[in-house]
Amino acid sequence: MFLIFALITLVGALLMFRLKNLITAGLSLVLCFIGIAGLFVLLGNPVAAALQIIVYSGAIVVLVLFVIMLLASHEEENPEKPRSIQRWGSAVTVSALGVGAIWIVKNSKILASPTTPNVDPMTLNRLGASLFRDHLVGFEIAGLLLLAAMIAAVSLVKREL
Amino acid sequence: MTPTQAFLSGNLQAYILVALLLFVIGLATVLIRRSLLIQFMGVELMLNAANVALLAFARFRGGDVQGTVFYLFIIAVAACEAAVGLAIVVALYRHKQTTDSDRADSLRQ
């Protein structure tokens, strides 16, 4: 099961990276997020999986897709200048990072040491109790941050306030 | 169970590897693609890679509830980032009729 969801996730991410059409790229990002939700279920965290599907693939990607359709820029525009040094430099940097990541994970003794997974799955009950007992200030600040972002988005897009 | 079997059935190493690869793909999207909208999707992918690593560590190293609470805060911040980032892209498109990040360099001149 893990292999299936990991493959769905990575294939969705690679499709998003490669596809020229922005709408299909956004849809493959939805595929990737659904794969991540599957990984969360396998990690015994159905709450996070539900939030992943509702918030990421349901709200954020749909918002991005709406903006893509509104702006009528469905394809990437032709490059103004080739900028081949930057492109090849970033490709080399990114592939070096990827190879280094694989090497580090493969050779890490700490990651490979025996683990004691929690057996009981996450429930909304436990999450809510911890959220409102131990992290109440953070919760309120997150609400304030969302309000500020909403006001900022409206005032950025409005022609004149 | 041999280490390879444990890896293929999903131990901590496998989850961290998936998270790192997702982060690398997101970084490649931000660095190599030019459209601001797809760079934005790459940023979302990098945030999700962090989430996968966080919840994998929470599962395998104890601290399940704390990990999920931080996951909640991360998606609140990601939603804020989505709202403000897309508003900036819309404002830029209204101003310069483009979503290409290479063409949005008038602050340099």
SSE order and pairing:
The complex is a heterodimer of chains A (161) and B (109).
Chain A (H helix, E strand, L loop, with lengths): L1 H17 L3 H21 L3 H26 L12 H24 L1 H4 L11 H11 L1 H22 L4
Chain B lengths: L2 H6 L3 H21 L3 H25 L3 H33 L13
Helix pairs in contact in B: 2-3, 3-4
Brief synopsis:
Chain A is an all-alpha fold and 161 residues long. Chain A has 7 helices and no strands.
Tell me about this structure.
The complex is a heterodimer of chains A (161) and B (109). Chain A has 161 residues and is mainly α. Chain A has 7 helices and no strands. In chain A, helix 1 runs antiparallel to helix 2. The radius of gyration of chain A is 20 Å and the shape is globular. The model of chain A has no long low-confidence stretch (mean pLDDT 88). Chain B has helices spanning 3-8, 12-32, 36-60, 64-96. Chain B is elongated and about 60 Å long. The mean pLDDT of chain B is 87. At the A-B interface, helix 1, helix 2, helix 3, helix 4 and helix 6 of A face helix 2, helix 3 and helix 4 of B.
